[in-house]
Amino acid sequence: MSFRWGVLQRNAIFGMGLADHTKKTYMELQRKKVYRYVIFRIDEKKKEIVVEKTGNPAENYEDFTASLPESDCRYAVYDFDFVTSDKCQKSKIFFIAWSPSDSRIRSKMIYATSRERFRRELEGIHYEIQATDPTEMDMNVIKERAN
User: Fold this and answer.
1) pLDDT tens across 66-83, in order?
2) Whether the Cβ atoms of residue 25 and residue 41 lie closer than 8 Å to each other
3) What is the number of other CB atoms lying within 10 angstroms of the CB of residue 100?
4) In the β-sheet with 37-43, what is the strand arrangement from edge to edge?
5) Which of its termini does the chain have fewer beta carbons within 10 Å around, N or C?
6) DSSP 8-state code for residue 102
């Protein structure tokens, strides 16, 4: 019983654990370009971060933003492809902490305390955005950060 308490206490202090497929799915986006984006949610019952949705490479940024809930927190990674002024094809991976202002306070607290630990698990992130409304993560913000 004390072991289980130790695990729960550790998660409460350091954030949630990762489901087995969570990091694997991110690696498929990063290395194999299997996905355009991955949306993660916290499963409070299991005390872990799980994959909620993936977007295929043909999907665009509007598809991604439409997949985020309007009033609940999520983490997401988005693989942004662009062409530089030198006509060079580039790709940058964004980590987005989505915490809408009208989401539950408990949800905001759980996502905020787990964010840094989860972010460190995902190697190869180029930029991070914390957004409370869609204007803080619109395409202009993405383009500006990537250049």
Assistant:
1) 999 999 999 999 999 999
2) no
3) 19
4) 17-18, 48-55, 37-43, 74-83, 89-98, 127-131
5) N
6) T
Q: Do the beta carbons of residue 64 and residue 93 sit within 8 Å?
A: no
Integer Cα distance of 43 and 37 in angstroms: 19
Q: Is 78 in contact with 122 (CB distance < 8 Å)? A: no
C-beta atoms surrounding 36 within 10 Å: 21
The larger pLDDT score, comparing residue 51 to residue 3, is at 51
Structure tokens at 142: 């993405």
Positive or negative: CA dihedral 114, 117, 122, 128: positive
The reported pTM is 0.88
Could you count the other beta carbons within 10 Å of the beta carbon of residue 46? 11
Q: What are phi and psi of 123, to 5 degrees?
A: -75, 145
Cα–Cα distance measured from residue 43 to residue 55, given in angstroms and rounded to the nearest whole number: 20
Q: What is the DSSP letter of 136?
A: G
